[in-house]
């Protein structure tokens, strides 16, 4: 049996999708019958694989992929030797990686255009906004009088995080987890790490971060991918120890 590549899941997904596609009947218009939970779970698995394959269309031959799947399931001799199999599989997964990267790049470009239009409008409406050298904007809601935060220092702060385009509150420490104490260089997204170093203890700032300085294409537990954010940050303490 051929050794499976670490990228095996993609090719397996294609095989499963095409098997479901073929056995269900091309062009079928009647609603499928699901008799029990097993049928329902099987259908959902097949549908999820199909959706993934539709998103990762690489222009391969559906008929030949299905033929290879059935051929292998029957334990028949393969027409491609082990070395060429590995090379071809690596190439398929490389192309899948490139396709996904192109999609992310396109989404990034689209999002950045929207963000820049929105930020330009904000600047026109709020002449007090300042632009940092790193590409985010900020305004001082309350000046501080204490120590200015620096890299590798521990700081204690509260925040509220809003979707910049919709104004929706997505995350906050007020009334939830309480103030955070953390080293500026640890477990803080890039924009906030840079923004905190503009602040003195006791200050309250409002930051306008493009998505690339927040969580980018990955998103987080509460922030969706490609989401520009507004953070209102209250810096309580800069620790000297």
What's the arrangement of secondary structure elements?
Blueprint: H1 8-24, H2 37-55, H3 62-73, H4 82-125, E1 130-131, E2 137-142, E3 154-163, E4 169-172, E5 180-183, H5 190-196, E6 204-209, E7 229-239
Antiparallel strand pairs: 1-2, 2-6, 3-4, 3-5, 3-7, 6-7
Helix pairs in contact: 1-2, 1-3
Task: Explain what you see.
With 241 residues, the chain is α+β, with helices and mostly antiparallel strands. It has 2 domains: 8-102, no CATH class; 130-239, Chitinase A, domain 3, CATH 3.10.50.40. The chain is 41% helix and 18% strand. It has helices spanning 8-24, 37-55, 62-73, 82-125, 190-196, and strands spanning 130-131, 137-142, 154-163, 169-172, 180-183, 204-209, 229-239. Strands 1, 2, 3, 4, 5, 6 and 7 form a 7-stranded antiparallel beta sheet that branches. A hairpin with a 5-residue loop joins strand 1 (130-131) and strand 2 (137-142). Helix 1 (8-24) packs across helix 2 (37-55) and helix 1 (8-24) crosses helix 3. The longest helix has 44 residues, at 82-125. The radius of gyration is 26 Å and the shape is elongated. The relative contact order is 0.12. Residues 1-11 have low confidence and may be disordered.
